Amino acid sequence: xxxxxxxxxxxxxxxxxxxxxxxxxxxxxxxxxxxxxxxxxxxxxxxxxxxxxxxxxxxxxxxxxxxxxxxxxxxxxxxxxxxxxxxxxxxxxxxxxxxxxxxxxxxxxxxxxxxxxxxxxxxxxxxxxxxxxxxxxxxxxxxxxxxxxxxxxxxxxxxxxxxxxxxxxxxxxxxxxxxxxxxxxxxxxxxxxx
Amino acid sequence: xxxxxxxxxxxxxxxxxxxxxxxxxxxxxxxxxxxxxxxxxxxxxxxxxxxxxxxxxxxxxxxxxxxxxxxxxxxxxxxxxxxxxxxxxxxxxxxxxxxxxxxxxxxxxxxxxxxxxxxxxxxxxxxxxxxxxxxxxxxxxxxxxxxxxxxxxxxxxxxxxxxxxxxxxxxxxxxxxxxxxxxxxxxxxxxxxx
DNA sequence: TACTGTTTTGGTACCTGGTATTAAAAACAG
DNA sequence: CTGTTTTTAATACCAGGTACCAAAACAGTA
Lengths: 194, 194
Description:
Two copies of one chain form a homodimer.
Chain A: H1 9-21, H2 28-35, H3 39-49, H4 54-66, E1 80-85, E2 89-95, H5 110-124, E3 130-139, E4 148-159, E5 162-171, E6 174-185
Antiparallel strand pairs in A: 1-2, 2-4, 3-6, 4-5, 5-6
Helix pairs in contact in A: 2-3
The first copy, chain A, binds a DNA duplex through residues 9, 27-29, 37-41, 43-44, 47, 53-55.
């Protein structure tokens, strides 16, 4: 009888963490088989690593998914705003991932690029409520999966409750998209009809 | 000693279903207390109603949330295409739901309206790959939650691999958004780099 | 009132996937 | 070869059940 090669403790534990990360549903028994060790060893490992038992793991996944915060399909603002000077300028970053591209070509769908620019244009306006009225946009070159879009919005002019906002989106300094938005502020009175 | 009012079986069971719908984490014991009956009664009820035990309920919630299908922010095409005549015209419908609006005002975010129009403009083009090059768009009036957007795209002109597509979006016949896209077809040769 | 059917309880044995603890065996290192 | 680390084993116990059986409690009615 020959025994199967076992990993050293350290290695096993790092693999265990990985393993549970992409399959939180594994029981200790499953893991024991996977690593060719006894159930007790797995339990010791979990103890040392502070990993909770199966049921707790599943529960926490379920709780997260039921959390109202997450369930908003898209975040409040598309892209992460990293600089914001109200009524002046703002910058946001968006990394193009699999869910943003055409599966056939791996090229980003235009409306995500637009969404980043549009939500930035709306966010930069110093008003309770701001809505896009018109826009002229240009896709300079296709954007591919993995590229990081940096959008910069600048408020160009202001006339009463209307602003012109210019947004330029670049990938590593290279211009890929431009847009000019006319954004209007709205009084909440709008809410009267209903 | 007076006993607390109990519901008839039928009522209890319908309430039980509701109760578990908005809190799948309740144990039989919790439910027994809630309805002032014994644990066994709850179990009989679950049996009759075909409701699985706590752990299975939690598990299924967790599985759903880990399902790769759900995690795609926006669907492949925004809105449901109900008519499509390639290179000529197309129509899609999108109902504005909670996830599409600003929570403060219940008004639809511009980029969803744009996304519906943009993906329709791209879909109507009879080509392997079509990308938006430029667009001029106008939001005629704000769109509110619950409204059904009907977008109609018409191919206006064609010049080699470039098309002009006009999209008008209406709610019950009332114009709320217009856009003119310049869409280009792409040869897959684009994929050469990388 | 006594009989009958439904509904509710109670109790027991058993299951899964653990925790907690103690102890022995094996592996490895100096 | 001894000391330490690592791995196994064994046992008692827990939550939240399933499956099953029998005793109550209640309601209607002949």
